[in-house]
Task: structure prediction
Amino acid sequence: GPVSATTITAGGPVSLTGSSVTAGTITVAGASGAAGTITATGLDTPTGSNSGAANVDIGSATAPGAIALSGDGYVSLTNVDFTGTGQTLSLNATGHNSSTGAYQPVYLGYGPGGPSASSTGPTPGVGQVLGTGTINLSSSGDVDVNLASGSASLTSGTVTAGQNVNLTSHGTLALGQVTATGGAISLSAGGPISLTSATAGGAITLGGSSLSVGGVTAGGRGATPGTITAVASTGAANFNAISAPGSVSITGAGVSAQSGQVTGDLKIASSSDATLGVVVIGGNLTLSSAGLASINNVTASGAGEIIAGSLSVSKALSAPTLTIESASGALTVGGTSAPSSGLWVDPTTFGNLHAGNALNFYAGSTVGGARGNLVIADLSPDPSATPNLAFYAGSGQTVSVTGAVVPKASGVNFSIGSLTDSAWDPTSILISGALGASTQVTSTTFTGVQALRQVTLVSAGDILIGSPRFISLVQATPAADINIGNNQPNGVAATGSEIGKIYVTAGELTLNATGKVIQQNSSPVALTGSGLYLLNGVNSTNTALSIDPPITVQLFGAIVNASGVTVANIQVSQGSGVQLYTPVSGQIPTTYEFNGCAFFSNTCGVTSQVEVTAVAQGLQPQQPQQVAAASDATSSQPPSARPVPVAIAPAPTASDIEVDPLVTGGGNDEIWRKRRSGKGKAQ
Result:
């Protein structure tokens, strides 16, 4: 029958067995070992009846030896003191309640009293564990531990449950294996949590001042199947291995996972460094690290977002879309010298980034307020790994291309700024390096061509292209005072190593700015232009140059027209392969010039003594709806969506152009006129 006692005090071992065992306090004095043990066992009567009544419920147990409580019903112990050396506490509930279908739980730290038929468990409580022995808890149902403040740390032992494990402690949890075969694991500690492993049939939740776990494996059962949530409140969260059929979230002052298989999303948030070894992610990857984000080999089937103070990728970081953000604001991509501040993506890390859709770089955080300047140094993008590169800096910031961005093969799209989100349009884009590579032999002949496919530059202010010396001259000069062909401001003409430099080699160039777009003419020869080489033929629109109206545009170079012929000098401004976008007024400004010749005008002011005039027949603006369809025919979009043009310049036919030089004036006062035959001919 049942055994019940309020207080039991003994100088030797205590052993209680009954159909149920209830005791308020059991105290054993004397030597440790077998002489100082407490054993209580609740047995079903008859055996195997699964009555659910063979409970063991002890309020307080103190012994210098082992304490072992087991029952065919639930097993509950509120307080325990086993301060002897090498002592053990074992609670074991193996039964099954045939009337309710419930498996029997183990309770530690709850009380007084155990559950009744109408309750879900003992009263959450006031229990304490004193001592540093080994604790082994096992149950066919749940294992619930709720220890009050002042309890000792649980420093060794195992926890095994047929269903759920719920463990709360104000001290340290340092256990071996924690297993919840049919349910979830929830561990919460005021101090560190250290586990050999945690394995659950459902979700796993870990919370402590720091976390150190050998391996953690979640299952697909429960309300939040397959998820792992781990939070280290003040220290690091370190895992040897993680496995989950759902999503995983890990937070700490330092986070590491040496290996992992995550079917859902993986979210890492570290106020210090973060390290990922070999991890495969079925969903999205979000990694935020205030310090160094160190990645060995990580693959995500969804999007990847890295926000970091510094970044190292030793083997590969792969996702369809990758976004790299600087936690501090400033960002440098490429080059061989680390910047004095901000995030640096060095060439090794850049080469180990694989994003089949898009690789985005932000000088700042898209979820925070950090903003900074962006520097693009030497890069060699591979279209098989990163076909679409996009760079963003916030309002008031500058993007500087100081190095050479030369693709390893054709097929790389490159953009700065956003055509859809003005918050990430820099105030200045300064290009003193090179986008693509080529060498100009004659005005229409180029060798060593390594072209970017599409280049899109979007600025909330200016786009300035040229040597650092040139940029400093025109940067502070009002647009009305700039005339590169007339060497205004004084000194803008190319000299020394500036001569012959090609700043942009691309299939297509789109310029979108609200300020001025000024490029240095790297040709020293009057009436010629050099610095851009646009190959055209990228898509069915046959558009090499698109301009969305800034205040003024002065560009120089050569363009492959819609017929596949390279044109230079005055021929470029006649509109072949050029697409313009009218401002609100609907008028194309006469300050839009290529090689010193204005679009939609008959004026080419190259020098103060020589004026070449040209009328390009057929360069009338079209209606927006007429050109929208042509824009939609683009076979492959750049990283930023293309704007809808409101004017387009078609290529003139050979019969449209008829050169008839007319010389007037005397001395140096000469005017050259180029006339076109046919409809619309200049008078």
